[in-house]
Fold this sequence. Notes:
Layout: E1 7-8, E2 13-22, E3 25-32, E4 37-44, H1 54-68, E5 79-85, E6 88-94, E7 99-100, H2 101-108, H3 113-132, E8 145-147, E9 153-155, E10 171-172, H4 193-209, H5 216-222, H6 229-232, H7 238-247, H8 259-264, H9 283-289, H10 293-297, H11 301-310, H12 315-324, H13 343-346, H14 349-356, E11 359-363, E12 366-367, E13 371-373, E14 379-380, H15 382-395, E15 401-405, H16 410-416, E16 422-423, H17 431-435, E17 439-441, E18 446-448, E19 450-455, E20 470-474, H18 478-490, E21 495-499, H19 502-510, E22 516-520, H20 521-528, E23 537-539, E24 547-549, E25 552-554, H21 558-577, H22 593-599, H23 605-608, H24 615-623, H25 626-633
Parallel strand pairs: 11-15, 11-16, 20-21, 20-22
Antiparallel strand pairs: 1-2, 2-3, 3-4, 4-6, 5-6, 7-8, 8-9, 10-21, 12-13, 13-14, 17-25, 18-24, 19-22, 19-23
Helix pairs in contact: 3-4, 4-7, 9-12, 15-21, 15-24, 21-24
Amino acid sequence: MWAKGHVLQAGKYQIQTKLGQRGFELTYLARDLYLSQYVVIKTPDTELKADPEYSEFVRCFQHKGQVLSKISHPSMVKCHEYFEEARILCLVVAYVNGETLNERIQNKGRLSPEIAVECFQKLGRALDTLHQNGLIHCDIHPDNIILQPNSEPIIIDIGSAKLLQPTTLAATTTVKNNFIPYEQEDKKNTPQPTLDIYGLAATLYFAVTGQIPQASMSRKLFGDRLPSPKQLCGDIEDWLNISILNGMALEADARPASMQAWINSLHPPQTTNQPELAPSTSFKQLENHTDDHLHALSNHQPLKWILGVIGLGLAAALGVIVKQLNAPVDTMTTVADSGADVSATSVSHLKTVLNRGTLHCGIDGDIPGFSFVDERGTYSGLDVDICKAVAAALFDDPNEVEYHHLNAIERFKSLQDRDIDMLSRNTTWTTSRDTVVDMEFAPTTFFDGQGMMVRADSGIETLEDMAGLSICVKTGTTNELNLIDQFRQRGIEFNPIVFQNADAAYTAYDEGYCEGYTTDKSQLIGRRSTLRNPEEHILLNVTMSKEPLGPLTMNNDSDWFDTVKWITYGLIQAEEFGLTSENIEAAISSNDPKILRFVGAQGELGNAMGLSNDFMLRAIKHVGNYGEIFDRNLGKDSPFQLERGQNALWTEGGLMYSPPWR
């Protein structure tokens, strides 16, 4: 790191101050002593050279420098030169005077649609130039756009071809995350122009409404709705409303394929044709945006033809059709015609699993007490045992399970894509997940609440004591949203540090990168045991949320969902009956007709579900009842010694309850 006064290029540049750091990249304000003007110098942070991602960043930085030194656009910060000194790469760009778009909006309010469109057409053309030369910006947001004194917009910071984050540093989440598409969170994805299209459209959303858009991750995971710009500001015309929403389409393939294609839509009808919706935009996506689309859809040729044939009196019926279809607008293709997999609606997934002979179960794999893999490759935990119980009921073998380790971002997509049959991964049952995200939640297997872990010697006793401090949290979870909601409600300023990987998050907390760590209390207790000095950490006496955790399946497959649901209920009912892994086989000689039905010795409960009639006898014999599962993994027979509390049977003051088995 260079100090003030350090000179480069034989005295041409003199460092004035460090402006900041983003990932591996350091940014300095410097003085060009030859031209008597300020410049900005960017360089890799050599103090991070031991990081495994450093060499890849340097390669990307070198590529960026070579490209930027050869291209120019009036709406993109000018690159003066690119050089290497003392084996350190340096990129020199112009220092731009003016206020950021964010400052402009905060100080003077939103831009008029006319001024905003003119500015963003220029910014779009600058990014298109970048794309044509093989670079993706990856970091478009209101603080990276300057409005110069002459009102000309300019992009002041150029990202790399990849967004690489040091594994040795925590990633800070800010409001800037509201301007990136959710797929950008996954480092395995190769950046595409659609990242910048989303970023620029989201920034235009902010410019014309003055409102920060809903984060794409919360839209993806929790079904949060994005209010249309027109809903927020009535003076926004339909064509601009649709152009912004097209650019902010949740899925990348529903956005315009190129920046130029999106720019072409930023014109009113009198200057160009009405902007068409992206070809892959589905009717369901359109219906979910807002009713403002209905007026614009009437100008779309296939729908205009239909409206002409059926008459305006049937427009309401068309709205119903729009809700039911999920097909490209330009082809009017139905789901059946499109070649999509519709087997889930015609053949139950239960038959698929039974024919395969193995259960594919999604878990976390890094949470002691819930799902964990030891050094011998042995799986254990409450979530794991739910998978085993289902496998035992289906195949009379609890080991017929293929475990899929999934992070919080991957879990729902893996279920939607049928990579897994069920998810048993400490997942909270919420309204949006049960409805909008199309999941079916089986009975809750653990009633939890979100807590906060801090160091015992920190002096922190309440959430208010954490004002201004850093808190580690996993991204893409209800924990992240609960944290923000709780602190915002209490008026507490704090610094959230987000991670995709639980191991990295706990390591960062253990090494002091953040003063607190938040997740469900049960996980905090389990994970505390893995810290270097567990006794040095405590849980605050606070519960920030309700977290009913349990397994889930995809929606619209009642046979498979009923299977997982009733096996889970069966574990609870077995404990209520007093049936354990030790005595279950003797239950076939019971005098109690309820127990005989439960173990399949009487009646046809199992056969009626498409299962072996003794499916619950199998599950209990191999895995045990709910009480045995709890005690083994979290309770009195585990290192955690958790009390049953809310997870006790209803007959003992808890919430565990099964409907009747008859």
